[in-house]
User: Which sequence fits this backbone?
């Protein structure tokens, strides 16, 4: 394993669920070949709610997370249950700093059309957003987790793993990124 750990943090309004966060952690650790842990951040974000939209600014959450990133963590991904937006879109499932240290994913819209859990969708979106933090861009390879996914059908249609091309890109980017 390369060094430079990844931290998964629940930052939602409701209570975090280990049955959700543990499998997310496990999958991230395997996919990015980095030690990954669930970290309980003691506070909750403030100042990210847009009162008119009743949604939270994903960019604001990225800034908030970045200010709290543990010193030994190369990346921190926040998982939340609040609805996220960026100004040009009605909503986003998540956002990441391209080539940056932080990512955020929301469960809020992932349950659409599903009576039972949406864990598989959450795992895919977490890997996708973390991929962006390592400089990966959207990929046209069918099934690749870095495929663009503007709706849940597109999430369901893709896999949870990097395709060989994205994996090679990740490994190269990762070498200089500890
Ligand atoms: Zn993306
Ligand atoms: Zn790919």
Assistant:
């Amino acid at each position: 394993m390369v060094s430079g750990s990844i931290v998964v943090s629940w930052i939602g309004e409701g209570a975090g669920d280990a049955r959700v966060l543990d499998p997310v952690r496990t999958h991230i650790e395997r996919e990015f070949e980095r030690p990954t842990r669930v970290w309980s951040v003691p506070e909750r974000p403030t100042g990210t709610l847009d009162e008119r939209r009743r949604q939270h600014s994903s960019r604001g959450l990225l800034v908030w997370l970045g200010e709290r990133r543990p010193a030994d963590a190369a990346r921190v991904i926040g998982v939340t249950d609040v609805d996220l937006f960026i100004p040009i879109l009605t909503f986003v499932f998540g956002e990441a700093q391209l080539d940056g240290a932080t990512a955020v994913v929301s469960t809020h819209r992932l349950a659409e059309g599903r009576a039972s859990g949406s864990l598989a969708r959450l795992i895919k979106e977490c890997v996708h957003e973390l991929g962006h933090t390592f400089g990966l861009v959207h990929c046209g390879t069918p099934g690749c987790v870095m495929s663009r996914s503007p709706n849940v059908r597109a999430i369901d249609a893709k896999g949870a793993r990097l395709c060989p091309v994205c994996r090679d890109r990740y490994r190269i980017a990762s070498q200089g990124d500890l």
Remarks:
- The chain is about 35% helix and 20% strand.
